[in-house]
């Protein structure tokens, strides 16, 4: 692989991962700009490394086999572990699911960029930003509507909630 191709792919992965991280940063999330940028860059480098390994096969013994999908599958698993650490439970609510999903998506953008699948990476980032930022007003509206229609003593399914005696 030519050096300018490596530089282009790594640079684009930084830019695209940074865009996704910037949205999270602006939302005040702990996994923000730098985290997403690094996830995308790392996934891209893993992908480029696996591609480079397939090109250097003549240096390996004849029975050696390089499979670029092995590294890709391990990136997916590793990012799942990282994303799991971003999910926190606070009483009845769970925080961090969107950030975890965004980290996982950012890794896929880095991998696609590393493979040279630029159109897929660009469209994915555009759609992700639309979902992250563009759907926020709709979510707020739905949340407000749910809170208005919820009656005290009645759960989300319309059933009476058990009453606790006053202390």
UniProtKB/TrEMBL annotation:
<keyword id="KW-1133">Transmembrane helix</keyword>
<feature type="transmembrane region" description="Helical">
    <location>
        <begin position="115"/>
        <end position="138"/>
    </location>
</feature>
<dbReference type="Pfam" id="PF02308">
    <property type="entry name" value="MgtC"/>
</dbReference>
<feature type="transmembrane region" description="Helical">
    <location>
        <begin position="35"/>
        <end position="53"/>
    </location>
</feature>
<keyword id="KW-0812">Transmembrane</keyword>
<keyword id="KW-1003">Cell membrane</keyword>
<dbReference type="InterPro" id="IPR003416">
    <property type="entry name" value="MgtC/SapB/SrpB/YhiD_fam"/>
</dbReference>
<feature type="region of interest" description="Disordered">
    <location>
        <begin position="143"/>
        <end position="167"/>
    </location>
</feature>
<comment type="similarity">
    <text>Belongs to the MgtC/SapB family.</text>
</comment>
<keyword id="KW-0472">Membrane</keyword>
<protein>
    <submittedName>
        <fullName>MgtC/SapB family protein</fullName>
    </submittedName>
</protein>
<feature type="domain" description="MgtC/SapB/SrpB/YhiD N-terminal">
    <location>
        <begin position="10"/>
        <end position="140"/>
    </location>
</feature>
<feature type="transmembrane region" description="Helical">
    <location>
        <begin position="6"/>
        <end position="23"/>
    </location>
</feature>
<dbReference type="InterPro" id="IPR049177">
    <property type="entry name" value="MgtC_SapB_SrpB_YhiD_N"/>
</dbReference>
